[in-house]
What does this fold into?
Amino acid sequence: MANNNTLKNAVMAAILTAIIVTPVFGLHLVRQGARTVMETQWHMVAIASAAVFAFQLLRPWIAKPFRALKFGIPTLPAAPTRGSRGVIALIIVAAVVWPFFAGRSSVDIATLVLIYVMLGLGLNIVVGFAGLLDLGFVGFYAVGAYTYALLYHWGGWGFWEALPFSGAVAALFGFVLGFPVLRLRGDYLAIVTLGFGEIIRLLLINLNTLTGGPDGISGIPKPSVFGMEMARRSSEEGTRTFHEIMGWTFQNQHMVIYLYLMALLLALVTLLVSTRLIRMPVGRAWEALREDEIACRSLGLNPTRIKLSAFTLGAMFAGFGGAFFAARQGLVNPESFTFIESALILAIVVLGGMGSQVGVILAAILLTVLPELAREFAEYRMLVFGLVMVLMMMWRPQGLLPMKRPHVELGK
Amino acid sequence: MSDLIPQLTQQFFNGLSLGAIYALIAIGYTMVYGIIGMINFAHGEIYMIGAYVGLVTLTALGTNSGLPVWFIIAAMLLVAIFVTGIYGFSVERVAYRPVRGSPRLVALISAIGMSIFLQNWMALGQGARDMAVPALLSGGISIPMGGQFDVMLPYSRMVIIVVTVALMVALTLFIKHSRMGRASRACSQDMHMANLLGIDTNKVISFTFVLGAVLAAVGGVLIAVTIGKLNPFIGFIAGIKAFTAAVLGGIGSIPGAMLGGVLLGLAETFAAAYISSQYKDIVAFGLLVLILLFRPTGLLGKPEVEKV
It folds into this structure.
């Protein structure tokens, strides 16, 4: 009887799949000049239906090992414990030494990974620690990037002078935008922050005279080394570049490694600050608020102030990340700050396990390196990415490496 | 100054037809929210899929096959309704049912994942570039109102308004008088109690998703015919705007969604005409933020009391 039901379900699922796939893949629209014609590709429909049919039929058998896996993955402590300090030091040393022996492109990718680590850790404060779903995080990233770009464009500021301002301006945006919206409930908050992120992007596109519109601002200088430029030739008369002072021959690789080390430094600072914060009273308050807002309020914590601190700090780290992004790319335009970018950073936090810093770092590496490795499958990237988000929520909503909350058992 | 009245009438008509589309999509948001309390982030993508299915049907029938225009449009609508209904059903089954009962944010993230998936699903199948939709209903009625400016009522926009009004009336009657409508009202009041009284709540939830998808598909087909082009990413902005409309009217309330859609369409059209067309999206998003800040329950919504 049970088998009969499985078969019936499988047939139903296969029929539905056929209907779903037909208008998208089965009947392919092709433009021929001004006309649109259609090509039939029934084999796609047949393959998809057969796959779904087989999957539905075998589901009882497939589900079993998955269920075992669900409880099989270990949890990790939220923050590094005393015993693991040696390991961490070793990892940091390895991360510092590694680029000198690696190829240019892999160092470049590693720099990108570190930017996402920074952003992931920043968003982790908001989403993971404080439990506020922020879908407009990329807006603050954009604010940071444009702050540096505009300070350079209109004031000729260098990276190091602009960096604190980028963080501060992004934090200010977080504070001002956060203040009115943080009393909203979870999912409304998510939509409002999404709205803010889009408004910031649309303003960047439309304020042509200030931001350069859709083209953005280009020619942004890379960070200097203690005031010395790191370029083939110095841009100003009378100053010497870094490689001239050191007596090296100029190599592009130096710049790449330097940028990598900067990113590493910024990511480590973010990690350190957020690790300390979560153990401070304010960090405890974030977690308490995430678990139960009403209980918090009745214990005399001010929810708005606590949420605002998380929101502002998260925005600040996004601002730092943005400034570094602008310096690395050399140009900023609104294209880099779409909602998909927010979703990607959110996916890093969700995949890693909300609140888990090690998890966030691993997820950032995973989500940045995998697409680079699988470049020939680039068009499937976002498709798989969406699917992974759905599957993660079903299978393991707490993330790959969820945080183990430090707690004390009462003695018997 | 004598052109002011005709121009206002023209903008009003354009805004009304745009608002009708928003209202059609907004009903899907509001019904799902009313029943299971989640924001169906992938709803805008269902609308996009509806538009594509319409275009596929149109191409299959052929634009100059000699069939009457009303027949072609009716066929587009029916096929789109059928296919997107199945999309709505499947999306709920695959992405939302397994996470029902989890915290709100889990369901929302799942919905965001589904939305990204569907966009790229279509981009992979039919290409990410703009597709042209052949003009089916060109022309319109031109009404001279004195002055230099004639008010132009294109047939395609008239169809939008007529179809939307018909669907709204049908929906209202359906919710009010049919067995399923009564069950869905019961579920939105108290899901547990409805379940205890023998209502198959899973069926009602599935039905809600199908109904929402069907209305969004109608909106998608009509807008594709009117605007004449579409791409796989039109659903995102349209979805956010329809959600704004649902919130404006009071989420959970069906008449609210209709009212909110029309108001948003009018606000956007007038903003585009009298402020700047580049700022029309900002007006919509700004409106969303302002409503949520000052009146989160919307115009016709009931306040929600948080219980311990």
User: Anything to note?
Assistant: The first strand of chain B starts at residue 131 and ends at 132. Chain B has a mean pLDDT of 87.
